[in-house]
Design goal:
Helix content is 24%, strand content 11%. By secondary structure, the protein is of the alpha/beta class. The protein starts with 11 loop residues before the first strand and ends with a strand.
């Protein structure tokens, strides 16, 4: 079972429970948005990487810098296409327990409670048709909420002040694939600059036919020492790999993690593994203190 329960001591508890006081202390050279050594990840190695990532030192540095800048350690944003809107991705977890059943994954309840307000939020940087370039295109900014000449991702980060962002892009980039890597780098480096940990996600589809977009996502995650949520691997055991007949859209199911039939649908598995990924950045109060790791 690739969705085996992740023990609470794998998670990370923020060292602050609210917005920190004081002003930013600056950006030491070690905290600037520079990649680590170039990744030597092979073109197909991403396929066997864990579904739920580990937290590296870079994420810890980004998190602490974000606290200094005033980011909320219990807020996350979604950067993506229509699949990152609340109707599809995580929105039910702001609607109350009657909209989900955790089953054996009861340990996720404190995580759900900790990030209330982010699950059902309509991100200003997640819209139907978005690709990696769209989040930097002023034309797509919400004119009622964003400043003049402010990009969607800058607007989202300024208004929501997240500590974490799920970066779920790639399906719409198949039409301009040559722009995907440089624009994903821009997203990564902008997020780091703003003190936001970017969680990079592989996609379920293979519209490009050779898996190269997922390979790029995994390679950049390794290069910048960032969490990689390998969602592609999570859907491989599902009927038709979790894809509808068009080979792009995911099979839908409600958030009932105790229902084996529902757990054969890609959207349900996506929400579950996303919550498990958040567990890397939060530990419930019930976890033993010596077992938790502070960012």
């Amino acid at each position: 079972d690739v969705y085996k329960r992740q023990p609470a001591n794998l998670a990370v508890q923020p060292t602050h429970t609210g917005l920190p006081e004081g002003s930013p202390t600056g950006t030491p050279a070690a905290r600037q948005a520079n990649p680590t050594t170039p990744s030597t990840l092979g073109p197909d190695e991403w396929q066997v990487q864990s579904i739920i990532p580990q937290v590296g030192e870079s994420a810890r540095i980004i998190f602490q810098r974000g606290l200094e800048m005033g980011n909320n350690p219990q807020a996350f944003s979604k950067i993506g296409d229509c699949g990152s809107t609340p109707a599809w991705f995580l929105g039910d977890f702001d609607r109350g327990p009657k909209y989900y059943q955790l089953g054996e994954f009861q340990y996720l309840q404190p995580v759900i409670e900790a990030f209330q307000g982010s699950y059902g939020r309509t991100s200003l940087a997640a819209k139907s048709g978005f690709n990696a370039s769209s989040v930097f295109t002023i034309l797509w900014s919400n004119r009622e909420m964003c400043d003049a000449n402010e990009t969607p991702i800058a607007c989202e980060y300024r208004l929501h002040r997240p500590a974490i962002a799920f970066i779920t892009l790639g399906s719409n980039d198949v039409f301009h694939q040559e722009k995907f890597e440089p624009q994903l780098r821009n997203i990564i480096e902008f997020s780091i600059e703003k003190g936001v940990i970017p969680i990079l996600s592989t996609k379920a589809d293979n519209l490009e036919k050779d898996g190269s977009i997922n390979a790029t996502i995994a390679r950049l995650a390794a290069e910048y020492d960032l969490p990689l949520w390998n969602y592609w691997r999570a859907v491989q055991p599902l009927p038709d790999h979790g894809l509808q007949e068009d080979g792009v859209h995911l099979t839908w199911g409600p958030n009932r993690f105790d229902d084996p039939q529902v757990m054969a649908t890609a959207w349900t598995v996506r929400n579950l593994t996303a919550l498990q990924t958040l567990c890397l950045l939060y530990t419930s109060d019930a976890a033993d203190e010596e077992d938790s790791v502070d960012l």
